[in-house]
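Morning!

This is the sequence you dropped in the shared folder:
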Amino acid sequence: AIMAQDGLARAIRPVHSPLDGDVVFALSTAVAPDGAVADPLLVARLGALAADCLARAVARGVYAAESLGGLPAYQDIHS
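The structure's back. Tokens below.
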């Protein structure tokens, strides 16, 4: 989740302002064996993929959004 938040910073400017609700939650159902230590390279790769995925999800949400309450959507302005 920590590295996935980098995806927000890639897609939203400014990110994490005092008045927004930018947050990422992550959940795992995996059970690690006692004494297991995660492979740092695997964790780094997974975090980088999570950041890429979240940045793309934000962009897709912006492109797919529809106008609401008189506020134009991206597709209304750029189509």
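Headline: The chain is about 45% helix and 0% strand.

More detail when I'm at my desk.
O.
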